[in-house]
Every structure is written in structure tokens, then in C-alpha cells.
Specification:
The protein is mainly α and 334 residues long. Helix content is 76%, strand content 0%.
């Protein structure tokens, strides 16, 4: 832990919020179409219908808000999962939750020609829930019960299964490939503000719920025996965490597709900076998750300009070395 005093923790938190706001502003300004701060302000104060103003209002601002919301949701979901499972590799991507949500959405598009936005949201939550229950059930089999290693293996198996099913559907229905390919890579490009508005109530519940149970997370992180001794209702807390993860991960996939590694990288960085107190870890993880996805999205615009790289590819580039480091360090380093 780099920061110990409360005053320095507040300074770190405020600094992270300022950085997030600056990156949101940068996301609105920078890209293939040349704009400026003045153009962005005029788009709302002195709108003239120009191409630049249309792009800022309909593309750049929604993109910045969606990237921030999705990044925060994935980071908080990863933190909750790592606390619940005592597994440093736990995240919606690694445990197959993103893949499950993505498979159900793709199945609806390719098999039933579903295009309704509200239907996407419900289907993404359904897929996330099914994947979560599968991983938890498989990981609980055996004499030793639920262990971090078994959860990781179960998550990898479920993720591979749903990914294979998704690819199989796209092979059967090649006409749907172009429609969903960019979405499957994970992207905030071209998403409308209405898309975020449709899932905001759900991920908002996830954000608030995660903050409200931070005290119980601190007790749970001491170990289940200690938590029971302190009167914590373990089953209720675990069920609450599971529901919050499904809301956060399912909502994120519904908006931006399956974006990986944010839920792994950010919780470890946050705990390294500020310690293990979830009253700080949960909100700071959310802010830093937004920072990471905003920065990755801005970088994705310039990597192969004028073409754009899906932001899910950028997070994979950033997160893969970190994942290897955590895996090599082992499960005793939490």
C-alpha cells in the first residue's frame, strides 16, 4: 500500500476523479475529425448544425460517457468477484460472464433476428447469470468445495464453451457476422446515448449496491470463519455480490460488448495504491476503471488511423502482460 493516511487517500481519490474528467474531455475533443475545446462548447451553446457539432453531440459525448460507465462497472465487478472468490484472477472476462452474455445476445441476433435494444439488455443479463451460475456450480464440485484454482479452471472452461458456441452460430449464419463482429471485440464506437440510458438503472444499482456493502466486504475478506463469528450472513452476502456482478457485467456487455481485463487490472492497482479497505477500494476502482477504458479508447483511435481498433483489443494489449504477472505470482499474493 502506497498511501496510508486518510488525507492522502482523499487526495488520490480526488486526483483520480480529475484525471477521469480530463480524459472524458479529451475523448470529446480528439479523434479523426479535427475539433477543439471551443468547438465542443459551441456544439451545446451555439449549435449551428455543422459536421463537427453533429459529431460531438451524437458520437463523441455518448462515447465518452459510455466508456466511463462501462469501465467503472467492469472494474467494480472485478473487485467484487476477487473478494468473493479470494482469487486474484477473478473478473467477468476470465470467469466467462462476458462470454455468456455475448453468446445469448449473438444467438438472439443470428437465430431470432432480435434487434430491440431493451431485448438486448435482458438477454445480456440472462447470459451473464447463466454463466455465473455454471462457473460457481462447477467450481463447487469435489471434496474440497469451492477453491480459487477450481473457479479459475471452471471459468476458463465456461468462457471457452460460450465462445465456441458463439463462433459456431456465426459460421452457420455468415450474414450476421459483419453485424456482430465489431461488437464481439468490445467497442464503444458508434454506441448511442440511448443505449447507455437503457442499462443505466441496472448498473446504477450495481454501483450503489457495491458501495453499500463495503463494510460487509471487509468482514468477508477476513475469511468465512471469522465472518461467521462476527455475525455476517455469508449466504446472503454472496448472493448479493452475485446479483451485483450480474447487473454490472451484463449491463456492460449489453452496451459495449465483451471487454476483457479491466476487471483484473484495476482492482490490483487500486489495492496497491490505497490498501484493502473496500470503503476506498470500491469507489476508487470504479474511477480508475473509467480512466483505463477512456485512455484505451482514445489510444484505439490513433493506433491505425484512419481506421479504429476496438477498445477491447486495446484493453487486451494492456491487460495480458498484467494477467501473466498475476498468474506467475500465484494465488498467495493477494
Amino acid at each position: 500500500m502506497l498511501v496510508k493516511s486518510t488525507s492522502f487517500k482523499w487526495a488520490v481519490f480526488i486526483g483520480a476523479v480529475i484525471l477521469m474528467l480530463l480524459l472524458m474531455c479529451a475523448s470529446v475533443i480528439f479523434g479523426y475529425t479535427d475539433t477543439s475545446w471551443k468547438t465542443a462548447i459551441d456544439a451545446y451553446t451555439n449549435y449551428n448544425g455543422s459536421n463537427e457539432h453533429i459529431i460531438i453531440q451524437t458520437v463523441r459525448v455518448p462515447r465518452a460517457l459510455i466508456a466511463a460507465a462501462v469501465g467503472a462497472s467492469l472494474a467494480i465487478a472485478g473487485t467484487l468477484m476477487q473478494t468473493l472468490t479470494k482469487n486474484p484472477l477473478a473478473s467477468p472476462g476470465i470467469f466467462g460472464i462476458n462470454a455468456g452474455a455475448g453468446f445469448v445476445v449473438v444467438a438472439a441476433i443470428t437465430l431470432f433476428k432480435v434487434t430491440d435494444l431493451q431485448a438486448f439488455n435482458g438477454l445480456a443479463f440472462l447470459g451473464a447469470a447463466v454463466a455465473a451460475f455454471c462457473v460457481y456450480g462447477i467450481g463447487s464440485f469435489g471434496r474440497e468445495g469451492l477453491t480459487p484454482m477450481k473457479l479459475t479452471l471452471a471459468g476458463a472452461a465456461i468462457s471457452a464453451m460460450f465462445s465456441s458456441f458463439t463462433q459456431g452460430l456465426l459460421v452457420i449464419n455468415e450474414a450476421a457476422l459483419e453485424q456482430v463482429l465489431f461488437w464481439l471485440a468490445g467497442s464503444v464506437q458508434g454506441r448511442k446515448l440511448e443505449t447507455l440510458g437503457a442499462v443505466l438503472p441496472y448498473i446504477g444499482i450495481g454501483w450503489v449496491g457495491a458501495v453499500l456493502i463495503t463494510g460487509k466486504l471487509n468482514i468477508l475478506s477476513m475469511g468465512e470463519d471469522v465472518a461467521k463469528g462476527l455475525g455476517l450472513h455469508i449466504g446472503l452476502v454472496k448472493m448479493t455480490i452475485g446479483i451485483l456482478v450480474i447487473l454490472l457485467a451484463g449491463g456492460s456487455v449489453a452496451v459495449a460488448g465483451p471487454i476483457g481485463f479491466v476487471g483484473i487490472v484495476i482492482p490490483h492497482i487500486t489495492r496497491t495504491i490505497i490498501g484493502i479497505d473496500h470503503r476506498w477500494v470500491i469507489p476508487l476502482s470504479g474511477i480508475l476503471g473509467a480512466v483505463l477504458l477512456l485512455a484505451a479508447d482514445i489510444g484505439a483511435r490513433y493506433l491505425l488511423m484512419p481506421s479504429e481498433v476496438p477498445v477491447g483489443v486495446m484493453t487486451a494489449i494492456i491487460g495480458t502482460p498484467f494477467f501473466i504477472y498475476i498468474a506467475r505470482r500465484g494465488f498467495n499474493g493477494r
